[in-house]
Amino acid sequence: MFRSDDLPPVNFHWALVWENRWALVRGLEVSIQVSIVALVTSVAIGLFLAISRMSSFKPASMFAASYVNIFRGIPALVSVIWVYFGWSLLFGYNFTVFQAGVIALTLLYSAFFSEIFRAALQAIPKGQREAGLALGMSRARVFTSLILPQATKIAIPNIGSMYIGMVKDTSTFAIIGLVEVVRVTQNLNATNFQPFVLYSAAAVLYVCIAFAVDLIFRGIEKNFQYPPTGRISRFLTKGKNQKVAVLIAKFS
Amino acid sequence: MSAKSSSVGSEVLVELRGIHKTFGTVEVLHGIDLQVHKGNHVVIFGPSGSGKSTVLRSMNLLEEPDSGSVKVLGVEYGPGVKGEKQVPRGKAIELRRNVGMVFQQFNLFPHLSALDNIAVSLRKIKGTSVKDSQERAAIELKKVGLLKWAANFPGQLSGGQQQRVAIARALSMDPKVMLFDEPTSALDPELVGEVLAVMRDLAETGMTMVVVTHEMNFAREVGDLNVFMEAGNIVATGGRDFYDNVTNARAQQFIGSVL
Ligand SMILES: Nc1ncnc2c1ncn2[C@@H]1O[C@H](COP(=O)(O)OP(=O)(O)OP(=O)(O)O)[C@@H](O)[C@H]1O
Ligand SMILES: [Mg+2]
């Protein structure tokens, strides 16, 4: 029979969190730094993969399709061990833990972003391309001036949710010794043995980040509305609208 | 059957000869011959699926014919008529800079204001300066009665207004020929008039126009050359008096059905 008085006295030492707040915040900073650098590289490579996958050049589209299907399926933990230890064993080159984290995330998330961009690019009505071509735009111009801006708008909310996943995946990089939130928590736990308290604090930090990212991406989204409703673009279009008003007055 | 505009002798701006086009395994154009003379207004009509859009889209190579000659402003663009000697071909992008097109679905750029739909296009295509492109855009919007709406985005304009902006955008490129593919078919009935009015004004300025439309009254007013298509062929053509004594039974029946 299991009786509750068999358990050691429960003693939640919540003050620990406050006492070690700066170590935790520092860990959070590292998580954010790694994931932001990886966000930039993943978006760039993801876009490139999406374009390759949609191209009529078979080797390019086949490469992109295989890449996406392989790397979507690899867990972050495996990816980072592979990059950090595997690369060093195979080629004798040692990445820093930060670099290894960025590369590991980029390998995985460029596959996800590729799919996000492909869906977004395909969602643009073909009439847009035809209108651009009919006006006399080059195909490259149609892509950069018409298709990409409209596809970005569609992709932004999905990029936001992916980014939350990226931040969470940085937690697995504790294994290579990246001093992010989970590694900080592990270290504190080793000396204090307060797993419930410390990991709850870690969870709260991740949730806070998720909320913040959501808020930020909502803001970005607003600046991509037609017409833009976000603060930044409203500020930018204010001057523009005044110019248009002048123009209207001039030609009326 | 071949179709020539009434004013024989004037310059031919667009000439299609022996245009064949296949989608998949189905040939949808069976050898189209059509001449568009400078200043003429060509009306193309006929049942759905007869190939009207495909003919129009061959003229600016949005559809590349399988064979046949597309000659615009004296330059050869198409793949060429089978058996004929190949002549040097121009680039599609150069053709399109001389030929404007207006679509059934307007196809305005939703992320740009009415003004920028025109101004940005001018900048990116012709390299016009910011100031000049905006002024030209304002002038073109004024011509279609939409200067006041310059700052509005397409989503904030009615269908009729969007189509007028689309016409203004095409005209800002100084085309020599304007193509219209059922420009009023997607509009609520009460908005058709404003678009036709703009097109009528344009026709009066002497712009060379090719219009696919089922607006038979408009066709009657402006059609210098009227072309009836059926199942991938031009089956009847006629000049200004075409609608008063339609001799082709199928054309007659069709006109009766759309009136
Ligand atoms: N991209 C395409 N792929 C396959 N088939 C096509 C394509 N475009 C047109 N077709 C087919 O070619 C034929 C001619 O089409 P087209 O659009 O030129 O007809 P239309 O006379 O303009 O008809 P509508 O009045 O409906 O616009 C139709 O049978 C159509 O289904
Ligand atoms: Mg059509």
TrEMBL record, chain A:
InterPro entries for this protein: AA_ABC_transptr_permease_3TM (IPR010065), ArtM/GltK/GlnP/TcyL/YhdX-like (IPR043429), MetI-like (IPR000515), MetI-like_sf (IPR035906)
List, alphabetically, the GO terms of the cellular component aspect: ATP-binding cassette (ABC) transporter complex
Q: Quote the Gene3D superfamilies the UniProt record gives.
A: MetI-like
Tell me the GO molecular function terms: transmembrane transporter activity
Places the protein is found:
Cell membrane
State the annotated membrane topology for this chain.
Multi-pass membrane protein
Key words, A-Z: Amino-acid transport, Cell membrane, Membrane, Transmembrane, Transmembrane helix, Transport
Annotated TM spans: 30-51, 63-85, 97-121, 196-217
Q: By its UniProt entry, which SUPFAM superfamilies does this protein fall under?
A: MetI-like (SSF161098)
GO biological process terms held by the UniProt record: amino acid transport
Q: Which PROSITE patterns match?
A: ABC_TM1
Q: Name one Pfam family in it.
A: BPD_transp_1
Which residue intervals define the domain ABC transmembrane type-1 in the entry?
Answer: 28-217
UniProt cross-references to PANTHER family, sorted A to Z: L-CYSTINE TRANSPORT SYSTEM PERMEASE PROTEIN TCYL (PTHR30614:SF0), MEMBRANE COMPONENT OF AMINO ACID ABC TRANSPORTER (PTHR30614)
Q: What is this protein called?
A: Unannotated protein
Annotated source species: freshwater metagenome
From TrEMBL, chain B:
Tell me which InterPro entries the record gives.
AAA+_ATPase, ABC_ATPase_HisP-typ, ABC_transporter-like_ATP-bd, ABC_transporter-like_CS, MetN_ABC_transporter-like, P-loop_NTPase
Recorded hits in Gene3D superfamilies, A to Z, give: P-loop containing nucleotide triphosphate hydrolases (3.40.50.300)
Q: What is the annotated localization of this protein? A: Cell membrane
Residue ranges of the ABC transporter domain?
14-255
Gene Ontology CC annotation, any one: plasma membrane
Name any one GO molecular function.
ATP hydrolysis activity
Q: What is its main location?
A: membrane
The family database entries (Pfam families) matched by this protein are listed as: ABC_tran (PF00005)
Q: What SUPFAM superfamilies is this protein classified in?
A: P-loop containing nucleoside triphosphate hydrolases
* CDD domains hit by this protein: ABC_HisP_GlnQ
What is this entry's stated membrane topology?
Answer: Peripheral membrane protein
User: Which family does the entry's similarity section mention?
Assistant: Belongs to the ABC transporter superfamily.
User: What is the name listed in the Swiss-Prot or TrEMBL entry for this protein?
Assistant: Unannotated protein
